[in-house]
Structure formats: structure tokens, C-alpha cells
């Protein structure tokens, strides 16, 4: 025999039970108390089966602690066996009459619904007149603690909301400051680029002026050299001696004192174009 039959024979229900309906649907596992409650609610049909391991199944009516022992006569037909309390809703709804006959299939006892009414639909227990003072005091203290806890949580939520708003404001300020700094940096960079471009233009202009001056100086030196070569007697001789106040005639040369500003007559160096040489010189000119 299986453990299920051994347990049923010993009258001790297993720890967990399963219920199989007529269509094969399986419910559970549930405790013995839950399975008995299903029987008392009329949720277990006489054709259903139960099992403690999901493999070995027996009719639910054969399980002693379910107490599905009673058949009832309804309109000339016998229904059951079921648990007595499964008849409660049928009795309250008027489906079965109080004088309907009941038969216990185990003992053969015959009775009526009215006689078994205290077992079928026991009267609800009367409510307690008053709770003990200690229980009321404990409930009151527990309620006060819960209320204080709720108030504390609300204060905490309010504080966190304020901190969140301050953090959001600070983030907005930092973002605005960063944007302004980026704008200032962009403007400064643009200004630096413009200043660099201006200086580069000035450098190019100075380079061009330098090149023009160098070219003009080279041309002036070339013209001066050409005029010296073209002058009678090979040009002008310059002496580094103190000039006399009056011209001195010596042989075939005549010597004049020339001021510190000098020029070669007929040369392009005359005047402002030739510049000034700030030194006193003597001019020696061949006569005749």
C-alpha cells in the first residue's frame, strides 16, 4: 500500500494535499486545513480525487478528515456525499427544504436538515462586549507611533524637496555662469584674433616699406657712384681736415669750406631727398 493509504488508515492527514477535478485540473498543494475548508464550502465534488504526492490519487469522499459523509434528498434525487457545512448556501438559498432527509453513508444514520442545522449553519459567535483596557492602550500607543512615523517621513520628504530645489537653483546659476564665461572667452578670443591680424598687416606693411627704402637706397648709391665716375678728374676728393674760413688756392686746386650740410650739384641727393650728413668736410675742386 502507498503512504497515502497508510496515512488514511492511521487517520493522520499528510502535510500537503492536491485536489484533482473531474476534468483533470489539479489544485494545490495546500494544507489539510485548507483542503477541509474547500470541502465545507462545497468546492469539492464527490467525484473529485485527492493526493499527498501528486502520483497516487484516492476519492475525496474516502478521506476521513474531510467528513464528506452525508447525502441529501433534493426534489426526489440524492446528492452527495458532501460535508454537512457544504449544504449551508443551499439551505439559505432555499434549494433544500428544512425537512429534507439526510443519510450518513458511513454510519447509516438518517436525519433531517432541520435537525442538523446547528452543524450545517452554526450561529455566528456573539461579538465581545468590550476589549480589555490593556489591548486598547496598546492599540492606541501603536497608532500614535505610526502617526509620529508618518509625520517624520513627511518632514523628511519636505526637507528633501527643499534641498532638491536649492540644488536645482545652484545648477541653473552655475550653468548661466558657465555660459557667460564661454561668451566672454569667445569675445576675448575674437579680439585676440583681430589684434593678431592687425599686427600681421602692420608687419607686412613695414616689410614692404623696408623693401622700398632698401631699393631706393640702392638706387641712390648707384646714381651717386655713377655721378662720381662721370665728374671731371675722377670726381670729388674729401679731406678730413679743419677747413679755413677763406678759399685757399694751391697749385691747380682751390679749397672751399663747406657747411655741415652738403650736396653734389645736380645730383638727386640734393635737398631733402639726399638726406643730411652731420659732419664738416673740405671740398677740393680742380680749377680751370
Any overview of this molecule?
The chain has 288 residues and is of the alpha+beta class. Among the domains are: 1-67, Dna Ligase, domain 1 (2-Layer Sandwich); 69-122, Dna Ligase, domain 1 (2-Layer Sandwich), CATH 3.30.1490; 232-286, no CATH class. Helix content is 43%, strand content 17%. It is built from 5 helices and 12 strands. The protein has helices at residues 3-10, 32-40, 88-92, 117-120, 133-230, and strands spanning 17-20, 26-30, 49-51, 58-59, 70-74, 77-82, 101-104, 110-112, 237-239, 248-250, 253-258, 281-286. A 4-stranded antiparallel sheet has the order 2-1-3-4. Strand 1 and strand 2 (26-30) form a beta hairpin. The longest helix is centred in the middle third of the chain and has 98 residues, at 133-230.
Give the radius of gyration: 66 Å
CATH superfamily label of one domain: GYF domain
* DSSP, total strands: 12
Distance between the termini: 168 Å
Helix-strand category: alpha+beta
Shape: rod-shaped
Major sheet summary line: 4 strands, antiparallel
Amino acid at each position: 500500500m502507498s503512504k497515502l493509504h497508510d496515512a488514511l488508515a492511521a487517520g493522520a492527514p499528510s502535510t500537503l494535499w492536491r485536489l484533482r477535478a473531474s476534468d483533470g485540473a489539479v489544485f494545490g498543494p495546500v494544507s489539510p486545513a485548507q483542503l477541509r475548508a474547500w470541502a465545507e464550502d462545497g468546492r469539492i465534488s464527490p467525484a473529485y480525487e485527492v493526493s499527498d504526492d501528486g502520483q497516487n490519487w484516492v476519492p475525496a469522499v474516502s478521506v476521513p478528515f474531510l467528513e464528506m459523509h452525508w447525502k441529501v434528498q433534493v426534489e426526489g434525487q440524492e446528492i452527495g456525499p458532501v460535508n454537512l457545512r457544504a449544504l449551508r448556501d443551499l439551505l439559505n438559498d432555499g434549494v433544500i427544504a428544512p425537512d429534507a432527509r439526510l443519510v450518513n453513508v458511513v454510519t447509516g444514520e438518517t436525519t433531517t436538515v432541520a435537525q442538523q442545522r446547528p452543524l450545517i449553519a452554526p450561529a455566528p459567535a456573539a461579538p465581545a462586549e468590550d476589549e480589555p483596557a490593556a489591548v486598547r492602550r496598546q492599540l492606541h500607543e501603536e497608532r500614535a507611533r505610526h502617526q509620529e512615523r508618518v509625520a517624520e517621513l513627511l518632514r523628511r520628504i519636505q526637507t528633501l524637496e527643499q534641498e532638491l530645489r536649492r540644488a536645482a537653483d545652484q545648477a541653473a546659476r552655475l550653468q548661466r555662469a558657465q555660459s557667460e564665461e564661454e561668451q566672454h572667452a569667445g569675445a576675448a578670443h575674437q579680439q585676440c584674433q583681430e589684434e593678431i591680424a592687425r599686427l600681421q598687416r602692420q608687419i607686412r606693411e613695414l616689410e614692404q616699406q623696408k623693401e622700398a627704402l632698401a631699393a631706393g637706397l640702392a638706387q641712390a648709391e648707384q646714381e651717386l657712384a655713377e655721378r662720381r665716375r662721370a665728374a671731371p678728374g675722377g670726381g670729388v676728393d674729401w679731406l678730413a681736415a679743419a677747413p679755413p674760413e677763406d678759399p685757399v688756392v694751391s697749385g691747380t686746386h682751390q679749397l672751399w669750406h663747406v657747411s655741415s650740410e652738403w650736396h653734389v650739384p645736380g645730383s638727386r641727393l640734393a635737398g631733402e631727398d639726399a638726406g643730411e650728413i652731420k659732419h664738416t668736410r673740405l671740398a677740393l675742386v680742380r680749377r680751370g
